[in-house]
Amino acid sequence: MTLSVTEVNAGFGGSTVFQNVSLAVEPGEVVTVVGPSGTGKTTLLRLLATFRRPDDGTVAWDGDDIWAMADDERLSIRRQVSMVFQEPSLFNAPVHRNVSYGLRVREPWRARVRRSLGELVGSSRPADTVMAALETVGLAESVDQNALSLSGGEAQRVAFARALAVDPAVMLLDEPTSNLDPYNTALLENAIERARDRGVGVVVATHDMHQAKRISDHMAFLHDGELVETGPPEQLFEDPTDARTARFLDGELLVGDREGSRVPQPPTADP
Ligand SMILES: Nc1ncnc2c1ncn2[C@@H]1O[C@H](COP(=O)(O)OP(=O)(O)OP(=O)(O)O)[C@@H](O)[C@H]1O
């Protein structure tokens, strides 16, 4: 399943965040959206998640315009897309209850009643999918721990497991490692890779260029309302077509700096 935005515009209250942005994620690939703070990465993920409608342009699922669909059809697509927010927001319950949350809200009410009765008589155990998701993030041993007693890094990994447990076609991750130490970052990047290897399409918004280089199949550089450049990481890092990309990767480019859109060419020798 391909999730895409084509020539989308988005803004708030009359001000434009970005215009004319096109991006797609295919099954089994990791796309990173990089760019300075405030450039619209979260807004773009929210468009892909269909949490909001674009002001203009199309959001599509396998080429079909999601916002032209009936509400129930759009809901069934939304259920195949899971998002991990910058703050993990877990609730006061064991880790397995947090991870199974999405599964529980998706199951039919009859099954939900049967399972609740099972839990009341103490016969329930975490579903295999919950355990598999926790193993993916290296937290199988914390299954019964209260989620609020986890470290920040563990909590973010549980949030990832919760998003993975519903067997999504696409995962959208908003700065998933911005508050994590290198150990937790490595575990989460490993989990992203494993999801990708299972055929999940993953979009990651990140400030971290080193991370983008490590995990991306494809990068998209968003700056000042414009999708400046897209391509494989080797292209953006080694042979960018736009000067702003090179300056951003060198840590020199800030929001509002529109100087020099082309990479300066070395002077040619006089004949
Ligand atoms: N609900 C909102 N109402 C008004 N303006 C908003 C709203 N959400 C975002 N914005 C503005 O839209 C712009 C893009 O915000 P967005 O959060 O998408 O950027 P970002 O690249 O994800 O930033 P960061 O990297 O800091 O998380 C910012 O100028 C922000 O202030």
TrEMBL record:
Write one Pfam family the protein is assigned to: ABC_tran
What keywords sit in the KW lines? ATP-binding, Cell membrane, Membrane, Nucleotide-binding, Transport
Gene Ontology CC, one term: membrane
Which segments constitute the ABC transporter domain?
3-249
Q: Which GO terms describe its biological process?
A: phosphate ion transmembrane transport
**Which GO terms label this protein's molecular function in UniProt?**
ATP binding; ATP hydrolysis activity; phosphate transmembrane transporter activity
Q: Which InterPro entries match?
A: AAA+_ATPase (IPR003593), ABC_transporter-like_ATP-bd (IPR003439), ABC_transporter-like_CS (IPR017871), P-loop_NTPase (IPR027417), PstB-like (IPR005670)
CDD domains (UniProt xref): ABC_PstB_phosphate_transporter (cd03260)
Stated name of the protein: Phosphate ABC transporter ATP-binding protein
Native source species: Haloarcula hispanica
